[in-house]
Amino acid sequence: MLDILLHTLPSFLLVLGIVVFVHEFGHYIVAKMCGVKIESFSLGFGPEIVGFNDKSGTRWRFSILPLGGYVKMFGDADPSSTPDAKVHVMTESEKKQAFFHKTVGQRAAIVAAGPAINFLFTFIVFVGLFTTEGQPFTPPRIGDVVKDGPAAMAGILPGDTFLKINTVAVTRFEDIRLEISTSRAEPMVISLDRGGVVMEKTITPKMAEVKDRFGAVHQVGQIGVKAETGKMTYRKLEFVPAVNAAVTEMGSMVGTTLKAIGQIIVGTRGTEELGGPLRIAEMSGKIGKEGLVPLIWFMAVISLSLGLFNLFPIPLLDGGHLFFYAIEAIKGGPVNESIMEFTSKVGFFFIISMMLFFTWNDINQLQIFNYVKGLFS
Predict the structure, then answer these.
(1) Out of 24, 174, 249, 282, which one is annotated catalytic?
(2) Is residue 106 situated within a structural domain?
């Protein structure tokens, strides 16, 4: 319990607080640029703990439930930017400040700014880390091959250097781990360099249950190869290479996430790996103990995940709003109000169900029931 109070909770609040602030600040700053009046900017939901009003009348507040945040704009009925049905008549000066009286392009820009600034934040952090601390780098050369594993059966030998996995170029051993661990038990073509001779091998990874360093169990693909020991280094990059590496790293993370979601949808990957706030809190606490730099890296990854998640075309999320704005732009008028109301209810139910499911996964993965039972035994 003391560890939770001293490490887990502070690290979790720091990580989530900064990531949520960045996201909501994106909405806030672009809305201000478009002339929208901001009524409140909240970190957290529910009753206010503390807050203040700025010169423009915006209420900046910390609320009791630290699981998100919102920017409430003039004319909104609630933090999810649902139009206020009570406000039918506005003066011309009020219309100039109301979110729903802005053009569809302005509204789309305001909504898209949240995920966009999450991506920008991740990009800036990655570039900063790669130029100051360095990028993890292990040569893609095989140090050892597990006996009777898929790689050994395919004829891969120690000393072979990976060039490509299917169509994905390999430059670091970290690329090999990422590509193979997120694969399924399906054949993949691997290009190798063996003493200057390029060859191809077809390998089918085997699926294995592994625990990560936080104790969570994952189903991952394995082929039975290991990197050369003692070869992992941190390479500091100049600015332009760091920019390229940051873009590549982000693209790889987005691609891996979408690939995993696709596998879950078609049923080739289990849903037990999906995590929610409890797992983020637990990971924040453990990473926080490792130092500030790992925590900043973790914060950047969470920011990227938040930006990507919010772009999914689910009603009430930013992606859902953008989907309806796209329809509005094509048809030349807003989507029918009854359709918007119905989809908002469906979206609300879906998001709540998803959060409950993620939390249940967290409880099972973190064995919280056993922990609580142990407190009273």
Answers:
(1) 24
(2) yes
Q: Token pair of 374, please?
A: 């142990």
Q: What span, in angstroms and rounded, lies between the C-alpha atoms of 73 and 50?
A: 20
Q: How many domains does the chain have?
A: 2
238 belongs to the catalytic site? no
Q: Is residue 311 in some structural domain?
A: yes
Give tens-digit pLDDT for 252-286.
889 888 887 887 777 766 666 666 777 788 788 88
8 pLDDT exceeds 70? yes
- The label of the residue with tokens 């689910």 reads 314
| Residue 327 near residue 335 (C-beta atoms within 8 A) | yes
Question: In terms of pTM, does the model score above 0.70?
Answer: yes
What are 324-363's pLDDT values in tens digits?
Answer: 999 999 998 888 888 888 888 888 888 888 777 777 676 6
The DSSP secondary-structure symbol of 76 reads B
Tell me if 71 sits within 8 A of 91, measured CB to CB.
no
Q: How many Å apart are CA 270 and CA 259, to the nearest integer?
A: 13
Domain assignment present for 268: no
Sign of the torsion angle spanned by Cα atoms 300, 305, 311, 317: negative
CA 217 to chain CA mean position, Å = 19
